[in-house]
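Q: We require from you a single protein entry containing the residue sequence and its fold in token form, and nothing else.
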Amino acid sequence: MSAFWNARARGLSPYVPGEQPRGERLIKLNTNESPYPPSPKVIEAVAKAAGGDLRLYPDPGCAGFREAAAARHGVRPGQVFAGNGSDEVLGFAFGAFFASAGEAGAAPAPALFPDITYSFYPTYAKLWDIPFREVPLAADFSVAAADYSPPWGGAAIPNPNAPTGMAMPLPDALSIAARLEGEGRVLVLDEAYVEFGELDGSAESAARGIDSHPNLLVVRTLSKSAALAGLRVGYALGSEQLIEGLCRVRDSLNSYTLDRLALAGAEAALCDQAYYDRINGKVVATRNRAAGALRGLGFEVLPSAANFLFAKPPGMGGGELCLALRRKGILARHFNRERVAGFVRVSVGTDGEMDAFLGACEEIIGEGGRRG
């Protein structure tokens, strides 16, 4: 704490990202990055953009990228917002659409999001002074649409959810949007992982619902399915009115959120869906194989529509397993929260990386049994 901080800074509990090791040779399965490189067309586009024009500001309207995203999703460019990663887009959405406690009038109804979910949501709410209520997941860790009901000041829900990886049926998500629309509230649907579920039918995007639900904002990222975590590009799909609201918040902070290299690479990625369907299909196949192997070792594994698995080891806690894996040179992620402290989240790597992970788990579980 510093005497120079204001009350807002003193009250924040910042989001803590997954470990990014430096200098160690580790199998990194802790931050849901793609195990495969981005499209060669992305590398070519970034290299081409790295020229003399870097002396000029980038296009603040991100026109080329928005046109590519619109074509990809069958919407209009005016229904697309681009930002520096989906984290920034989500932060702008909280600031634009959920009422803060300091607004004039009666105390606002709380924004809703799941109790086990992306841990940036409560951070955003506290940053913007937004009252919020965490809605418990069902006993099977699914998001139950019926549990989202007034009083509410809007809702933010990842689909598939994180860290569980479980997807909510599209009709359920749209039913929440419809009920919120009747009260003039917004549903922010965070689809960071949906493309993995679309490949095997375990999840479905709500992008097609933005015309029929003007209060629905669908947030996407290129960090996962486009293998561009290092480029930091996210975007949102929604009505022109919602997009304008995001622009008003963005332009009150920083009009140039995406640089020339990021825009060039992201546009190229959106135009090479065949490549990404191929590598993400490999991720899905590896995910399903690893899930079956873990169940064979006695793990409880939640059904995943994402590029990671959420699994509970037999005979030990999730934190204990993470530490044991770290000693064997493998990084996984543990969330020390009630209900899920026994689980670990494991990003899907290459087949070789997952074989090493599964072998390590077998050794660790066996060692635990011998100690017992």
Q: What stands out?
A: The longest strand covers residues 216-221. The CA atoms of residues 186 and 215 lie 5 Å apart. Residues 40-272 form a domain with the Aspartate Aminotransferase; domain 2 fold (CATH 3.40.640.10). Residues 273-296 form the longest helix (24 residues).
